[in-house]
C-alpha cells in the first residue's frame, strides 16, 4: 500500500489534483495534512509527484517537494518522477527535481532504463542537457564509483548550479559511465536516440562521450526489438549529416 494513508479519500483527492493541475485544491489539502505529500496510491501505481511530473504541472511538483514528498519515490515499475518528466519532455519539472537533488542514476525495474534513456528515446535534448550538465553522483554506480553527495544529481541551466554552490565537484568519469549505462539487452541512450532518428540528441551524446561502438546483447530482453543494423544505419546517417 505504501503508507498508512493508503486508501484515504484526501490522498485520492490529492492524486486527482496533481493529475489535473488543480494547484488550489492541492495546496488546500497539503495545508490541512502535509503528510499527504508522501501519499502512495493502492498498489504503488503512482504517487501525486509522479502524476504532476508526468503532466508537467511545475507548481504542484514544487509544492509537493516543499511539503516533503520523496523526490526519489518509485512506482511499482521502479520509475521515478524524474523518469516521467523526461519521458514527456517537461524540462522545467526536470530542473526542479534536480534542484531538490533527485537521483538521476536510478533505473526502472522493467528494463533497466534510466531517465536518460527516456529522454533520449524521444530526442528531448533539453532534458538530456539538464541531466548531464553538472554530474555529481549520489550513490555508487555498478562498477564501484564513489559516492559524493546524498540525494542525487543537481543541475541548472545557469552558470552556477546548486552543486557548485555546495562546493561539489563535477565528475566526468561518473558522467561517462552514466551516459553509457546499458538497459536490458545492452541498450544505451545513444541506441535510443539513433533508432528513433534524433540526430541532435545523438550529436550531444557523442560530444559528451557516448560510446559509438556499443552493441546490444544478442539475447537481452529488449535486444529483439533493436537490431544492430538499424543502429549502424542511423549512426552512418548521422555522420553523413555532419
Question: What do you see in this structure?
Answer:
This protein is mainly α and 242 residues long. It folds into two domains: 1-70, Ankyrin repeat-containing domain (Serine Threonine Protein Phosphatase 5, Tetratricopeptide repeat, Alpha Horseshoe), CATH 1.25.40; 78-241, Serine Threonine Protein Phosphatase 5, Tetratricopeptide repeat, CATH 1.25.40. It has 13 helices and no strands. The chain is elongated.
Highlighted features:
disordered N terminus, elongated, 2 domains, Serine Threonine Protein Phosphatase 5, Tetratricopeptide repeat, single chain, mainly alpha, 242 residues
Helix content: 40-55%
Give the helix/strand class: mainly alpha
Q: How many structural domains can be distinguished in the coordinates?
A: 2
Q: What Rg do the Cα atoms give? A: 18 Å
CATH topology of the largest domain: Serine Threonine Protein Phosphatase 5, Tetratricopeptide repeat
ANK repeats: 44-76, 77-109, 111-132, 185-217
Pathway: Protein modification; protein ubiquitination
Enzyme class: transferase
Protein name: RING-type E3 ubiquitin transferase
Amino acid at each position: 500500500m505504501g503508507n498508512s494513508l493508503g486508501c484515504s479519500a484526501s490522498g485520492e483527492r490529492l492524486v486527482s489534483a496533481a493529475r489535473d493541475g488543480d494547484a488550489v485544491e492541492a495546496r488546500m489539502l497539503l495545508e490541512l495534512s502535509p503528510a499527504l505529500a508522501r501519499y502512495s496510491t493502492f498498489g504503488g501505481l503512482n504517487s501525486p509527484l509522479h502524476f504532476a511530473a508526468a503532466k508537467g504541472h511545475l507548481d504542484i511538483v514544487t509544492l509537493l517537494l516543499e511539503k516533503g514528498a520523496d523526490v526519489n519515490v518509485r512506482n511499482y515499475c521502479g520509475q521515478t518522477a524524474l523518469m516521467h518528466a523526461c519521458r514527456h519532455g517537461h524540462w522545467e519539472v526536470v530542473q526542479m527535481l534536480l534542484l531538490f537533488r533527485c537521483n538521476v542514476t536510478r533505473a526502472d525495474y522493467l528494463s533497466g532504463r534510466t531517465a536518460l534513456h527516456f529522454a533520449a528515446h524521444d530526442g528531448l535534448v533539453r532534458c538530456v542537457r539538464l541531466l548531464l550538465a553538472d554530474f555529481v553522483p549520489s550513490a555508487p554506480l555498478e562498477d564501484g564509483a564513489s559516492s559524493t553527495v546524498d540525494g542525487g544529481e543537481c543541475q541548472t541551466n545557469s552558470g552556477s548550479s546548486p552543486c557548485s554552490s555546495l562546493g561539489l565537484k563535477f565528475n566526468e568519469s561518473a558522467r561517462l559511465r552514466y551516459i553509457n549505462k546499458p538497459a536490458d539487452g545492452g541498450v544505451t541512450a545513444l541506441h535510443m536516440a539513433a533508432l528513433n532518428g534524433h540526430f541532435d540528441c545523438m550529436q550531444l551524446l557523442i560530444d559528451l562521450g557516448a560510446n559509438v561502438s556499443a552493441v546490444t546483447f544478442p539475447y537481452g530482453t529488449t535486444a529483439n526489438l533493436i537490431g544492430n543494423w538499424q543502429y549502424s544505419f542511423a549512426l552512418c546517417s548521422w555522420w553523413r549529416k555532419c
